[in-house]
Design brief:
313 residues, alpha+beta, Alpha-Beta Plaits, 7 helices, 37% helix, elongated
């Protein structure tokens, strides 16, 4: 039975696929990438990693195999156990285990398990059909614009001063004034009235323009403005859950829930999953590292079989 095929199928839909007794495959979404040196574009994808510490059976792989092969759940669990024993035996003999479209396992010089992921398949379904491509660099011509700055020099005209005899100027003024007073009194009076009317009209026009400008520039200030309302929305996601157990019987799940609440844990009952199991969790966390730290405490103090479920409820 090709177990790597079933693991590969589950990686499209889940962030964590656990092989009981061996470890768990974890996926993380990587955004689109650009390699500037080669002008290559790569679509978003799921990066596959492996955690050898997550070995507890969450029922996901066994249920999927049972439904695909039309066998019982217990038979699927037994097949997985035999396959894990076979893998460990090959690793001890320093052989390399290759899982198609997933990656390869081997032991290093210090007898530690090393996982090398395969990049032949993109498990990110939203990027289906997208492939990498190379786009030639765009060559742009840089045009150097030279601005001709012309300085305008103001032409200054020098007008020579004409000196005249002040006595002759005053004498001319006296003669003209006398002529006007003697012969043009009537015309002088009319000219005076017209001058007054023109100046009055000019003043009224100027005042009207200033008034219109003040109206346009007027600023209306509200003395008691309505205070701003600040809304605080908590969008913190808690996708990492420490699972106490997953039960076929809802009654057993209720008993576990009551026990955890009695011990002071903020326990929760999760909805029945696709495998017909009722999970019960200790608590949910926002980060994987925080969940792992609390998991070690719970394993030592209460339940050595507890494990981490990665799912947004």
């Amino acid at each position: 039975m090709k177990m790597d095929l079933y693991i590969s199928q589950l990686l499209y839909r889940y962030q964590c696929v656990t092989v009981p007794g061996f470890g768990a495959f974890l996926t993380e979404i990587q955004s689109a990438q650009l390699n500037e040196s080669s002008h290559s574009f790569y679509p978003p994808k799921k990066l596959v990693s492996f955690n050898s510490y997550l070995k507890n059976n969450d029922g996901l792989l066994a249920n999927h195999m049972a439904q695909s092969e039309k066998i019982s759940y217990d038979a699927a669990v037994a097949i997985i156990e035999n396959q894990v024993i076979n893998w460990k035996s090959k690793l001890q003999e320093l052989e390399t285990i290759t899982l198609k479209n997933i990656g390869a396992f081997s032991l290093n010089s210090e007898k530690n398990l090393v996982f090398t992921p395969s990049d032949s398949v993109n498990y990110f379904t939203e990027a289906f059909g997208l492939t990498s491509y190379v786009s030639p660099a765009i060559k742009r011509e840089v045009l150097q614009q030279v601005a001709d700055i012309q300085e305008e020099n103001e032409v200054v005209q020098l007008v020579p001063e004409t000196r005249s005899n002040p006595f002759l100027k005053y004498a001319a003024i006296f003669v003209v004034s006398a002529g006007l007073l003697g012969a043009g009194g009537y015309f002088g009076n009319n000219y005076y009235q017209q001058k007054i009317q023109q100046e009055t009209l000019a003043v009224q026009t100027k005042v009207q323009k200033q008034l219109e400008q003040k109206i346009q520039e007027a600023t209306f200030v509200i003395s008691n403005p309505i205070p701003a309302v600040t809304l605080t929305v908590n969008n913190t996601k808690m996708p990492y859950h420490i699972v106490a157990g997953a039960f076929l019987s809802e009654e057993n799940a209720d008993q576990m829930y009551d026990e955890l609440v009695h011990l002071g844990y903020p326990a929760k009952r999760i909805r029945k999953n696709d495998h017909g199991l009722y999970p019960v969790i200790y608590k949910s966390y926002a980060s994987y590292s925080e969940a792992q730290t609390e998991l070690q405490k719970i394993k030592k103090s209460h339940n050595p079989e507890a494990w981490v479920l990665i799912e947004e409820l």
